Amino acid sequence: MKFFDVQTSFYRPLWLRIILTGVCLGWAIFELSTGAAFWGVLFGAVGVFLAWQFFVVFDPKDDERSEKR
Fold first, then answer.
1. Most C-beta atoms within 10 A of its C-beta, which of 11, 26, 62, 66?
2. What are residue 34's phi and psi, to 5 degrees?
3. Is the pTM of this model over 0.70?
4. What own/partner pairs with CB < 8 Å and gap ≥ 24 does 34-43 have?
5. pLDDT value at 21 more than 80
6. How crowded is residue 43: how many other Cβ atoms within 10 Å of its Cβ?
């Protein structure tokens, strides 16, 4: 089990993946605009990680196959 496992069936709906990624990236922009560089970079990194996991390597068909076993 990975520490941040976002490759589960909970994240299958596209609207949920878009909202989570958008909130993290939006909050990063907010933090950077208020001068909180640490939090901006932290939330930006989480947003980029989620974007990579949800839209580049996420395959909901893999999850369906593992549930049938």
1. 11
2. -95, 0
3. yes
4. none
5. yes
6. 21
